[in-house]
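Page 47, continued from p. 46.
Same chain as before, 197 aa.
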Amino acid sequence: MGSGVSGIPTPTEIVLVRHARSVPPTADGPDEFTRPLTTDGLRQAQELVAVLTEPRPAAVWSSPYRRAIQTVQPTADALGLPVRTLTELREWDDGLSFTEVWESHYVRSWANLSYARPGGESLEQLSIRAVEAVRTLVRHNPGRVVLVGSHGTFISRALAGFGVPVSWATVRQMPMPAIYRLRFTDPSTRPTVCGWT
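Result:
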């Protein structure tokens, strides 16, 4: 951590942003990497600038998925910062092919966090990945604010990994976009968490 004027370590803050409203998935694409924000979602991303520039982020990171990048890009532009991507910030690899009845599959996974479909990861595995990705950003940005564009299930499982009670109902109620501020006094400890908007 950096040191403040009084010699007390300056906390590191990770601002997790669930992407704005995105184009729904369809059987014929676009795929998860290229699926963009809707026109309304692009407007929401612009409206986030005032809120997301307020804590003065020193760096902007994102999932490599287009909808996450598009959500934080206007804020990065306003700050004069690049958006850097990190594969570990991607959404849950749920192991599902396209289906319109995906919700029953998600309910099953939330009921059994260790369950993984072939080629996918369990929600337990996602929590491990998400917590490590966040801790990596904390370790590399001591005493700074870092803005992170990501996804609903990723953020939910990161919070769960840090001891915040999260359920499938919580995820279903999370808006697009949503903002969580995680404040760390040390990379190895649990953060204090300010809720979503």
